Amino acid sequence: MSSVGQTTGNPFLDSIQLKGKPETPPSNNNQQLTQQDFFKLLSQQLSHQDPFKPVENDKMIAQMSSFATVDGITKLNAEITNMNKTMTSSQALQASSLVGRKVLVPSNEGYLAPGANEMKGVVSAVKPIKEILVRVEDEKGQLVKTFKVDGSAGGNIDVKWDGKDKDGNTMPSGKYKFKATGSVDGKSQELPTSTFAHVTSVSLGNAQTGAVLNLKGVGGIKLADVLAVSES
């Protein structure tokens, strides 16, 4: 059914509606209104408006301002997308230098690699603690070994497990956990513990996640979540 002569409810479109048989516009898969299209419509509006009822200046300015705003937002989004791509590539390049090294991650779960004779971590104490008890547990939560470290210096205290159980037997490779407790103000308290993990590769990720470090036996972690980098 032809729409010629019918009102659309939009004064702008009604004012530029041509009288008579409309021409069939060429097929165009791009339905987005460009700046050139907008000015063509504006020119048609001016040439076909009723001279006794011209379009008011404030309406025309509002139409132009609205289009300018939308056009500006579209360009800004495109610029942000390009900037995110650049930042992601830069992060990936930076992260690639960590392959083969160990990083400290905010997790008490570490990985004892095949043939390795130790698993390292860090216990954080807000104040000096004379003696810190460290528990090593396997993936099932079963106790493997306990040992004590000196926490009198406070702050970040290095801990190292030799990969053996309480009887001196070498444990198989796999995931293990550090759990540390110490006396704080006369009360036993669990202390935050982090572990070192070996970086095997880097994934590019996306604008939201950034570069992701793939850790041996542990999984992936965002570059931004790394707490420290170790030489070995």
Q: Can you give me a brief rundown of this structure?
A:
This protein has 232 residues and is an alpha+beta fold. It has helices at 11-16, 35-48, 57-96, and strands spanning 102-105, 109-112, 119-125, 129-138, 143-151, 155-161, 174-184, 187-191, 193-203, 212-215, 219-222, 228-230. Strands 1, 3, 6, 9, 10, 11 and 12 form a seven-stranded antiparallel sheet that branches. Strands 2, 4, 5, 7 and 8 form a five-stranded antiparallel sheet that branches.
Strand-helix topology:
Elements: H1 11-16, H2 35-48, H3 57-96, E1 102-105, E2 109-112, E3 119-125, E4 129-138, E5 143-151, E6 155-161, E7 174-184, E8 187-191, E9 193-203, E10 212-215, E11 219-222, E12 228-230
Antiparallel strand pairs: 1-9, 1-12, 2-7, 3-6, 3-9, 4-5, 4-7, 7-8, 9-10, 10-11
Description:
- The protein is elongated, with a radius of gyration of 33 Å.
- It has helices spanning 11-16, 35-48, 57-96, and strands spanning 102-105, 109-112, 119-125, 129-138, 143-151, 155-161, 174-184, 187-191, 193-203, 212-215, 219-222, 228-230.
- The model is unreliable at 18-22 (pLDDT under 50).
- The protein is of the alpha+beta class.
